[in-house]
Amino acid sequence: MGPIWSSYYGNCHSLLFMVDASNPTQLSASCVQLLGLLSAEQLAEASVLILFNKIDLPCYMTIEEIKSLIRLPDLIACAKQNITTVEISAWKGTGLSEVLRWLEDTHRTNG
Questions:
Q1: Per residue of the chain (111 residues), what is the pLDDT tens digit?
Q2: Which phi-psi region, left, alpha or beta, contains residue 71 (left: φ > 0; alpha: ψ -120 to 50)?
Q3: From edge to edge, which strands make up the β-sheet containing 14-20?
Q4: What is residue 40's DSSP assignment?
Q5: What start and end residues bound the annotated signal peptide (predicted)?
Q6: Distance between CA atoms of 54 and 62, rounded to whole angstroms?
Q7: What confidence score (pLDDT) does residue 17 get?
Q8: Was 56 annotated as part of a binding site?
Q9: 54 is in an annotated binding site
Q10: Residues 41, 80: contact at Cβ < 8 Å?
Q11: Residues 92-108: pLDDT tens digits?
């Protein structure tokens, strides 16, 4: 789906990007996709929420491991966008209240 994402960038004010925290083999591909989104001129003003999902699984990577592997501090420092991160479990509902709060705050600010 990544190659057609740019078709949907118009009027985008917020971006939610989900990373599977239980799958280290896909982390580099996720990082490449994220870098592509962050460098898209049409998304320069969008607020970004990165969701680290599947923290309920016993084999998930810690947020510190993920931040280190994708060089998250460097991404945040160089990105034009405001970037927020949240650890979630979509299955158990962990962290979803933070996601809703972010959406409300972001749309209140941009709306």
A1: 567 778 878 888 999 999 998 888 888 889 999 999 999 999 999 999 999 999 888 887 788 888 888 899 998 899 999 999 999 999 999 999 999 999 999 988 765
A2: left
A3: 14-20, 47-53, 83-87
A4: -
A5: none
A6: 11
A7: 94
A8: yes
A9: yes
A10: no
A11: 999 999 999 999 999 88
Is 70 labelled as part of a ligand binding site?
A: no
Buried/exposed 38-73: b ≥16 CB within 10 Å, e otherwise: bebeebeebbbbbbbbbbeeeebbeeeebbeebebe
Burial of 88 (0-12, 13-18, 19+ CB in 10 A): buried
Q: Which two tokens stand for residue 54?
A: 């599947």
